[in-house]
């Protein structure tokens, strides 16, 4: 049970029409999600497997994406480890911050905390049952570095001075979180995921040297544990970052934000390559949006299927709140029309 186009992209098989899916395709912009959200909290939608499966089903059903993705959140491992977690209108709140060795001692062990994540495995199973058989299903975890920035600062943007300079605390935390994520990935794969993507949304803020020191070891550990089953997306990364991360042969592929020219990537990389239309442009008026999208796709159309092996068409980052649903639907339709 999988989508042939997505399987081809993961297997390096050339094809005319690329698979299409979007990060955050099940979320606040979508009336299906909004209707569920009126009745349930965000935590309930994530932690009650039947609800998580229904949220994930919505956009695949309405927009015909090739891929469904687990509906969840990257921060639940922090809650599992004992940091507490509440979601408010202002965003997520943790019960304490990791700033010292004393704070690290407050964390539960991986052995005592991983069972907390069983709801993701159950949600994965029910999502697989809910979506059509010809759709693929993937999962995700947060990048170890990104989770550390949340653990220290409560967010992953802005001034990351503390996460960058708490060297000893960071090293110890990363040991724990990488081991936790290794077990977390296993649960999602056991639930039926075909691929797990590491979403490392704070990695682009690191210099290449720090990226090599802080990000690479953990990602390599996770990818090596499940060769060909783990992909990596680092928001805001550059060619210097990619030249480092691509040297992990066990990674299944990579996501790229809208600042990349994927034609350059295709020339030297034949694994999965996901991206990368600018998500903000989905707010354009319908006809202008269609023209802009067609112009974006034209260079890809001019490539042969062999020259763009592995491409998964989507956005540079996730669908934004209040994005017009009609443009999301149009995106999927125009991509398929363009490459027929």
From TrEMBL:
<dbReference type="InterPro" id="IPR038071">
    <property type="entry name" value="UROD/MetE-like_sf"/>
</dbReference>
<protein>
    <submittedName>
        <fullName>Uroporphyrinogen decarboxylase</fullName>
    </submittedName>
</protein>
<dbReference type="InterPro" id="IPR000257">
    <property type="entry name" value="Uroporphyrinogen_deCOase"/>
</dbReference>
<dbReference type="Pfam" id="PF01208">
    <property type="entry name" value="URO-D"/>
</dbReference>
<feature type="domain" description="Uroporphyrinogen decarboxylase (URO-D)">
    <location>
        <begin position="19"/>
        <end position="28"/>
    </location>
</feature>
